[in-house]
Structure formats: C-alpha cells, structure tokens
Amino acid sequence: MMLLRCTLLLLPSVYLGASAQDPAQSVFIDSSVGSKCCDALRAKLPSMVFARGTPEYNTRHATYYSLQQQELFPTCTVKPNSASDVSLIVKIAKDSQCPFAVASGGHMSWKGSSNIDGGFVIDLRGMNQIDVSPEDQMVKLGPGPLWQEVYKVMAPYNVSAIGGRINAVGIGGFLLGGGIAFASVDKGFGADNVFNYEVVLSDGRIVEANKKTNSDLFWALKMAGTNYGIVTRFDMRTYHSPSIYGAVSVYPFTKPTASELLVDFEKYVHDEENRKDFKAVVFNYNNGMDLAMAIQVNLDSVPLARMSSAEPIMHAEKVGTTHDVVDEVIAHALESTARSAWFTMTTKVNTDFFMDMQAMAQTIFEPLKNRKGLTTTLSFQSFQKSYIEGAAHSPIYNALKRSNADLVCILILITWTEPTDELVMKEATNTFGAWGEAEARKRGILDEFVYINYANERQRVYERSVTPEDLDKMQEIQKKYDSSGTFEKLWRGGYKLPKKGGARAVQHDEL
C-alpha cells in the first residue's frame, strides 16, 4: 500500500471544482432554503431526489476524495439520468434561486469544490454513457463514468482515449480542467481531444458546442470551471492502443538516487523526438520513510530501462491494455479517508531546483512528522513543447507558449488524518508553495501557468493561466451564454472567472 499511496501524484480532479470560490458565494446555505429547493425538485423529479440519510445520498457523500468535502451536508442529492433531467433541474434552481453544487467523480481536495452545505448537489454519476465507435475513432461519454469504467469498455476495441491515470477519477472535472494523460506528449491535454460538447445552459437550453456550432463556447469549455454550463456529454477522439507498458519503481530516498532519477527525467523532457514515453518522478514521505519513485509508460508496449541504477525496494510492471496497466500497476492509490492540501506551480526544467525543493519540504514538514497520517508528496511531470502545441485551440495556449520552453508541472500534495491539524497543514503547504515560486522566480525559471486540476482554492488560476486578451474573451463568452449570471450566483464551488474589469496581471509572489 505504501507504493500505491505514493501514486497520488497522478490525481486529476472532480467535476471542477480567479481564485476559486468567491467569499460572497458561500457553500453554507440556510437549511430552510435547502428544504424549499429540495421540495421543488421533488415535486417535479420525485424518483431522482434523495434526502440525507438515504442510501443513495450516503453513497454519493462517501465517494468524495477528501474528508474536507465530506464535512459538508447538502439538504438533498438529485441524480439526473439525461440532459433533459439536468435542464429541468437548472430551471427549477433558477426559478427558486436555489444554490447548488455539481459532482462527477468527486476528486477535488478542498472543501466546497464540488459539495455544498444546505443546498443541493447534482450527482452526475448516473449519466454513465460510454459509446465507442471504433470505425469513427471516437467515444461518446456522459459526465458520470470513472476512467476505469471507460478504459474497460474500450479495451475490446483496442482503442484508448486521453483520460485519467487513476481508476477513480471522473470524466467531468478531468476534461473541463485540461487533463494530463499518458499520451499527452503526443496528443495534448484531454480537453484538446474533445471535439463536441453537449451542454445545459443557465436558462435550461441544451446546446451542442463544437468548431462549427457555438464555436466560442467550444473554445471556452476547454478550461470551463463552473462558469458556462453543465456538460452532459463529451465526444472524444480515440486512438489505436491494443496495449501499453507501465512500470512503477520505488527507492529509499537518497540524494544520489534522486539526482539520477531527475537527470533521466530531464533528458526525457528535452527529447523532442520521443512521443511514445511518459515519465514522472515523485518524492514522498510516508509512514516514517522518505521515498523516491519513478513512473514510466510506453505507448508501444516497449519495456523501458529503469531511471536509476539503484535497486528498488518495490517494482511493478506490466504490458497490457490501458485499463489493466492503470488497474494493476498505477491504481489503488486513492483512499478517501484522508484530509489533503494541494499546491501547484510550473517551471522550466532544473534538476538543482527540484532537489532544493525536496530539501525545503523536509525542513518545513520535519516538525510535523508526528502528526497522524502525515504524507508529503512532491511530483514532477512534463509539459513539453509538443504537449503545448496540442492545446492550440484552448484558452491556455497563448499563456503556455509564451515561454517557448519545455516545462514541468510540479504538484505538492499533503495528506493527514486529524481535523485539528487542518490549519497547520494548510499553512505549511502554502508556505512551501510560496517559497517554491519565489525561489524559482529568483532563478529565472518560474512560469506563470497554474494547472487548474492541481490548484488549491487560493491560487489564481485564470489570472495566471490565461493571457489578459483571452481572459477578456472568456468573460465575454460567459456574459453571452449566462447573461443573467445564474451560474455565477447559484453554482457554488469550483473555479470562477474574475469579475469583468477586475482581471489584472498577477505577480509571482501572489498565489
């Protein structure tokens, strides 16, 4: 389990959950408002509305990734089966001014990212369409399935898609926040492989968004947050993939081993001809042990040489379908019994800086090592130039391409058990992240980009990851498709666009 807990670096997100939730948009709603809203929903959709304490409600509530999310209790959960159901729910919410949250896989870490207290939650898990069309090289996905379910259905057709690398990650948040996948170095973000969306707008209309129809909305949905609409179907390109190779190697952390892993990683990041490999390096403190880990995947099923000459204390590898490799080598990492804090940043490749980050992590978290359930994870994954070019039709493209460099996405992920440790753990995480950005800025290697699926609730995702011109465009599109501001006011959680006129250049010493 120690090996598998380390693989938490691969977490993408939930149905999205700027900084995140505006303080004025509280996730704590008066119970009388929640009761009124749930009564209105029950009157129109009696078989889909479930009160607190029912099995259906409890199942949804227990599947949130973090314990912080599980501390919020909506008055009811509504489980739609179709876009028409979602349309009716949105109309009822608008007419009754009912605050709500939306959940797909439930994988964002911070409280209120996809849950609400006293309002209601739209649980999209029942919208579990997975229709594979191998002759058309596409798959139609509802927002409800988990990626393990998608890969299992696709496997007999010898195809795969740009999806999550952990079994229990949901479709919705992963694709609406970009989505890093094993094949991203060749095919871009998951969002770049969606060619059509079915979306419920704030007035209840159900529309398609693609390059020809509602093309502006299609562009904005590549980094949607909780701003434009509730996506009820994603049409994605698939690619031929009868099998892949995957391996995880875990070593005791030593400076020589860690350095060796990072040198190999740096060579991989700069290898412009390599479109078939995925590599990541992770440093992890877990259960009293400091560990270093290498994760490798080859899309052509070619076994890869280990990234370190040291002898691993644990090694797992497999050639099989994407489903089998994820299920047997990469997965089983998600334990929904921990509290967590995340922080992400993007830099140019710099092995010395990465080693210094690990040293600082040990300095900051050493005094906290006796806190129950503490794990610290520092992961490094690449945004190569080829990767960035795949995002050419996304709001993030102009921001990412400014550096004209191969980049590395860094995730700081801290987990613990006790609620009483919440403040100190979040402060330590943000202190570490702020030090990392300040130090990277001083060395001239910091990039402004903040990957939305790894960000915490304080990080300014839109101000830092989209150019001012593209942010203006996103705000205009939001005004066009939600002129009443219904989703801005009622849809709680996730990342919100900054107010029109309030966007500004954000200094690197700001979150």
From TrEMBL:
<keyword id="KW-0285">Flavoprotein</keyword>
<dbReference type="InterPro" id="IPR036318">
    <property type="entry name" value="FAD-bd_PCMH-like_sf"/>
</dbReference>
<dbReference type="InterPro" id="IPR006094">
    <property type="entry name" value="Oxid_FAD_bind_N"/>
</dbReference>
<dbReference type="InterPro" id="IPR050416">
    <property type="entry name" value="FAD-linked_Oxidoreductase"/>
</dbReference>
<keyword id="KW-0274">FAD</keyword>
<dbReference type="InterPro" id="IPR016166">
    <property type="entry name" value="FAD-bd_PCMH"/>
</dbReference>
<dbReference type="Pfam" id="PF01565">
    <property type="entry name" value="FAD_binding_4"/>
</dbReference>
<keyword id="KW-0560">Oxidoreductase</keyword>
<dbReference type="GO" id="GO:0071949">
    <property type="term" value="F:FAD binding"/>
</dbReference>
<comment type="similarity">
    <text>Belongs to the oxygen-dependent FAD-linked oxidoreductase family.</text>
</comment>
<feature type="signal peptide">
    <location>
        <begin position="1"/>
        <end position="20"/>
    </location>
</feature>
<dbReference type="InterPro" id="IPR016169">
    <property type="entry name" value="FAD-bd_PCMH_sub2"/>
</dbReference>
<dbReference type="GO" id="GO:0016491">
    <property type="term" value="F:oxidoreductase activity"/>
</dbReference>
<keyword id="KW-0732">Signal</keyword>
<feature type="domain" description="FAD-binding PCMH-type">
    <location>
        <begin position="70"/>
        <end position="241"/>
    </location>
</feature>
<protein>
    <recommendedName>
        <fullName>FAD-binding PCMH-type domain-containing protein</fullName>
    </recommendedName>
</protein>
